[in-house]
Amino acid sequence: MLFFSYFKELVGKEVIVELKNDLAISGILHSVDQYLNIKLENTRVVDDTKYPHMLSVKNCFIRGSVVRYVQLPPDGVDVDILHDATRREARGG
Amino acid sequence: MSWSGPDNFPATSLADNLDKKLLVILRDGRKLIGVLRSFDQFANVVLEGALERITVGELYCDLPLGLYIIRGENVVLIGELDLEREELPSFMVRVTPTEIKQAQKAEKDATELKGTMRKRMEFLDID
């Protein structure tokens, strides 16, 4: 559940989600669930000339299983808190 | 048995998108457009009045499909279509299904040719 909790902290921040089909979408993280499905608002396709059909899509749902990377804002991680949480998770709770 | 389960949806639920016109992108690259009538936690979705939108370069075509249930594992992305905006850039031209099939074939042949050319040139070790 660590990454689920982590993503929940990032709600409202601007992220870029790159999918396994190379489509990269930037947008405001609206919500995330246990499967790491992601909902983005105010989306923009990074290479929009290659994907003209995405022009009128402003909000979208992305299935967690097709995500390759999520690029986070530089201030998206407090390393100390993340380390603590990681150790706690590794100890099993 | 009741059809609907508990109504405490997770935050990512597609409930807000019910009865809206959506674009569904599938793992094989196909793009389906239709009205969302149902969904579940796996992103299985029911699209009413579905059509497949085929785009090749600046050409596009909509093939009517009807009522579709899409198995969740094939779903990549579900996008809400903003009705205020143009669905496609203005330079895109609508063509007939026959024309789009020809264009698709031409594109496929071109990429295949590129592939074989590249293979033949591999011994030259250029990139």
Automatic annotation (TrEMBL), chain A:
GO terms for cellular component: catalytic step 2 spliceosome; Lsm1-7-Pat1 complex; P-body; precatalytic spliceosome; U4/U6 x U5 tri-snRNP complex; U6 snRNP. Residues 2-76 form the Sm domain. GO terms for biological process: mRNA splicing, via spliceosome. It comes from the Eukaryota. It is found in: Nucleus. Keywords: mRNA processing, mRNA splicing, Nucleus, Ribonucleoprotein, RNA-binding, Spliceosome. The keyword Lipid biosynthesis does not apply. InterPro entries: LSM_dom_sf (IPR010920), Sm (IPR047575), Sm_dom_euk/arc (IPR001163), U6_snRNA_Lsm2 (IPR016654). Its main location: nucleus. GO terms for molecular function: RNA binding. SMART domains: Sm. Component of LSM protein complexes, which are involved in RNA processing. Belongs to the snRNP Sm proteins family. This is Sm-like protein LSM2.
UniProtKB/TrEMBL annotation, chain B:
PROSITE patterns: SM. GO terms for molecular function: mRNA binding. It comes from the Eukaryota. The keyword NADP does not apply. Residues 9-84 form the Sm domain. Component of the cytoplasmic LSM1-LSM7 complex which is involved in mRNA degradation by promoting decapping and leading to accurate 5'-3' mRNA decay. LSM1A and LSM1B are essential for the formation of the cytoplasmic LSM1-LSM7 complex which regulates developmental gene expression by the decapping of specific development-related transcripts. Required for P-body formation during heat stress. This is U6 snRNA-associated Sm-like protein LSm1.
